[in-house]
Every structure is written in structure tokens, then in C-alpha cells.
Amino acid sequence: MKHTKAEILEGCKKMCKNTLMETLDIEFTDVSENTLVARMPVTPRVHQPDGVLHGGASVALAESVGSAAAFIFLNAEEVAIRGIEIAANHVKSVREGYVYAHAKVLHKGRTTQLWQIRIVNEEDQLVSLVKLTTITLQK
User: Fold this and answer.
1) Would you please indicate which residues are annotated as catalytic (active-site) residues?
2) Best label site of 9, 19, 49, 95, fewest CB within 10 Å?
3) Which residues belong to any copy of the Thioesterase domain (predicted)?
4) What dihedral angle (degrees, nearest 10) is formed by the CA atoms of 7, 31, 60, 126?
């Protein structure tokens, strides 16, 4: 990382302005050498009709943090990065509080990258496990 943690998190915050991430109240909270973390509040805005977190909201959170991680860790000032495949397994329901998405790179190739995004609840229990594949394109 060539920027400080605070600079990276501030850049992520600016990236969210007027996007789905802002609509879902996604907030980037931590970054390390190979992991980016974001959180999302679980409120009726992201519930399915029976009052639990909607799987689509979880996938939106996962793709948001995975794509942002790709942007940060792949020096996206020089390339464009796009998600090309996403798969999610939802294993636990959440009704309230926050969920946290931890994006970690599993494969960092020049053209394609594979990201694992673990979404956990406030007790660090697995809610969803997501796999995101991104592609790097020349600008």
C-alpha cells in the first residue's frame, strides 16, 4: 500500500458518493496489506419481506467491497476493473445490527483476480461466503 490507511478509507468514502453503496449505507472501516473491510447496517431498508437481511443486499455489499479491494490492491489508476462473476452462499439470517464484509484476494493475476468475501455478523459468525472474479482491462 502506498497510501496511508486513513487516505485509503477516505478514498473509498469518496468513491461511494451518489452510488448504490451510499444508498445501502455501506461504510469502509479497515484496510490491511491484503484485506479490505466494509460494514452495512441491517435495517428494514435491506430486509426481505419476512424481516431478515435480503441476499441481494449481501451480494451488493460483497461486490462493493471486493471491487473496491481490487481497485486499491491492483493500482486501478492505470487499469479498469470489472466484476465478471459472483457466487454467494447464505448460511445465517440477520435481522438487525451490522454485517461486516472482509474481502481478501485468493488469486491476483494480471488479467483475472479471485476474491473471497466473508460476511459476518457482529458476533463474527459467518452470514455469507462470496466468491468474486474480477478482470483487469487496459484503459
Assistant:
1) 63
2) 49
3) 51-127
4) -160
- Domains annotated for the chain, with CATH where assigned, are 5-138 (3.10.129.10)
Cβ 87 vs Cβ 63: under 8 Å: no
* Other CB atoms within 10 A of residue 28 CB: 24
pLDDT of residue 57: 98
User: Which H/E stretch holds residue 67?
Assistant: helix 55-73
At 30-79, the pLDDT tens digits run: 999 889 999 999 999 999 999 999 999 999 999 999 999 998 888 777 78
- All cell numbers assigned to 126: 459467518
Average pLDDT, the chain: 93
